[in-house]
Amino acid sequence: MLLDDPLNAKIVQELRSDGRLTMQKLGERVGLSPSACLRRVRDLERSGVIQGYRAVVDPAAVGVGFTAYIAIGLSSHTTASQLDFERAMKNAPQVVECHNITGTVEYMLRVEASDLASYKHFHSNVLGTHEHVRTITTYVVMGSPKDERA
């Protein structure tokens, strides 16, 4: 595995903190030349360890004023019902994360909306009308003192 190499692990750690680092800066931080860093980064990208780079966006700047996690219980536990639900969530722009989980419910969603009224519309007209949704439990985000997603 590529991350068994301590230098590769350090490169990944640095890029997770700042994906826009130049190879010069990255090399300085991990103790390699820029060309050696570039070779390792390309290997990490080719192997799928690094799957992409993202921008961290201020939610308020893009009109997001409401964030919630939603626990979803399904009424049917078949592969077909799960795939149907997952397809619906992929098509819902409010859903920024959808995780199939273990426990008392099947899915955990991260939903972003402009405000409570917009979320209520999503809750009632998307989740509430989906044929396989049995339970919906909403956890409203009050603040995020630590959020390392990029």
Distance between the termini: 24 Å
Tally of helical segments? 5
Q: Using DSSP, what is the number of strands?
A: 4
Low-confidence parts: none
Query: Based on the structure, what is the oligomeric state of the protein chains?
Result: single chain
Structural class, by secondary structure, is alpha+beta
CATH level-two architecture of the largest domain? 2-Layer Sandwich
Q: What is the fourth-level CATH superfamily of the largest domain?
A: Lrp/AsnC effector binding domain/regulation of amino acid metabolism (RAM) domain
The whole-angstrom Rg is: 20 Å
Order of helices and strands: HHHEHEEHE
CATH class of the largest domain: Alpha Beta
Q: What proportion of the residues is helical, as a percent range?
A: 25-40%
Itemize the secondary structure elements and their pairings:
Layout: H1 6-17, H2 23-30, H3 34-47, E1 66-74, H4 79-90, E2 95-100, E3 107-113, H5 116-127, E4 133-140
Antiparallel strand pairs: 1-3, 1-4, 2-3
Helix pairs in contact: 2-3
Structure write-up:
With about 150 residues, the chain is an alpha+beta fold. It folds into two domains: about 1-45, Arc Repressor Mutant, subunit A; about 60-140, Alpha-Beta Plaits (2-Layer Sandwich). The protein has five helices and four strands, in the order H-H-H-E-H-E-E-H-E. Strands 2-3-1-4 form a four-stranded antiparallel beta sheet. Strand 2 (about 95-100) and strand 3 (about 105-115) form a beta hairpin.
